Amino acid sequence: MDSPSSLHIAMFPWFAMGHFTPYLHLSNKLAKRGHKISFFIPKNTQTKLQHLNLNPNLITFFPLNVPHVDGLPHNAETSSDVPFSLVPLIATAMDQTQNQIELLLKELKPQIVFFDFQYWLPNLTQKLGMKSLQYWIASPFSISYFWNGPRESQGKGLTVDDLRKPPSNYPDSYIKLHQHELEFLSSSRKLVFGSGVLLYDRLHIGTSSADAIGFKGCKEIDGPYAEFLGNFYDKPSLLSGPLLPESPTTFLDEKWVSWLKGFNHSSVVFCTYGSEGPLEPNQFQELLLGLELTGFPFLAALKPPNGFESIEEALPEGFNERVKGKGIVNGSWIQQQLILEHPSVGCFITHCGAASITEGLVNTCQLVLLPRVGVDHIMNARMVSEKLRVGVEVEKGDEDGLFTRESVCNAVKIVMDEGNEIGREVRKNKNELRKFLLSENLESSCVDSFCEKLQGLGSSKKEV
Fold first, then answer.
1. Is 19 a catalytic residue?
2. Catalytic residue among 19, 204, 342, 351
């Protein structure tokens, strides 16, 4: 029998693996405290997440039939099934699940529904007498800087000069953004993201209509930014804790164990560039040549660059022969969390996705930041390199956004060279932050506080 204090929560994340996974991590932490979770997920994607459900007695998957939208490949369900140019059509398909969601909610009767990109969901929950919480895996640091509300920009674009300055009353007076980043961010304000709705309007409407907003993060790092947004929208603003990765139940493949144990402690550079968005051929080669230039052993997990079918055909000339025995470029999925935990890994070059940053912070490796041009990636890089000073960013051209082999090598050398003054400061800060994140009661107290606020939200009745 359910405890009187246990909640029934429905989870309905954006159709992307990078959203499903942290939503499920959070679900595990809530289920561990006795809360019941109904998790809405496209039917063919369910098998990819089943192994991460640590509490199947309390977390139930409810498969959704994703409608076909003209222009999408048949059976495409998530953003990872299509090139970036077609991702807005995935949003259109997600919006067309509204009737399925309504039927599920009427049948299941959860008290609270978590969502992110589904701007129409709060109106539905309000009609059904339920509460809605817009929960973001992105840092409140980036959301508070770019959101429509604080920028007073619903339905209109923002110029590069507009975005160069923080919104009024923002907790930080200055954030360094490069020209190429500002141009990308300005152009993204014009992006229609499914159902004829501008991306930023979609997000702002959801925030304005939700009963509360929540974020992955803790008050010591993210508190001022979450509070700024909560105050602006006049909503309860909740922090769930950093969602540290659970200990894996699997083991690192023997081929990687065998290869890594051939190198000294903390000597290997591990580089990944995310599961979406391949590099351009020139940048792909500069990255690999930069790794070679460091002189350190390295393992790079990369997708083939744009225009190439395989990693091998895109490698720099003579590269395999020169790095044989101490450098590997892997083109398929790799056990990132387990590799980061291996004692031979001393440096992690990351595209700055939220999950990768968290995994990097809780391991002993040093961080080199090579952010993809995306809102969250850019701001994660600035938070880690400038605000927290626990990593070093690879230098890029201000206008063209290009990095060189030398800039990759220099960033790695800074964090790996014990005699480098900047490297010493970064390593010291990183070690202290790691200890803080892994401290005995940090995450459990964050999640307990989050649950307490959810119970307050779930027990306050709505007028139906």
1. yes
2. 19
Residues 341 and 336: their CA atoms lie apart, in Å, by 9
Angle, CA of 29, 98 and 453, to the nearest 5°? 30
Out of 81, 116, 201, 211, which one is annotated catalytic?
Answer: 116
How far is 168 from 261, CA to CA, in rounded Å? Answer: 52
pLDDT tens figures, 368-408 = 999 988 888 999 999 999 999 999 999 999 999 999 999 99
Q: What is the pLDDT of residues 187-201, one digit of tens each?
A: 988 899 999 999 999
Task: Kindly report the number of other CB atoms within 10 A of residue 322's CB atom.
Answer: 12
Q: Which two tokens stand for residue 10?
A: 């429905």
Task: Give me the long-range contacts of 41-44 (CB less than 8 A, separation at least 24).
Answer: 42/15, 42/66, 42/77, 42/78, 43/77, 44/75, 44/77
Q: Is the pLDDT of residue 93 over 90?
A: yes
- Alpha carbons 28 and 37: distance in angstroms, whole number: 9
pLDDT of residue 274: 65
What average pLDDT is seen over the chain? 92
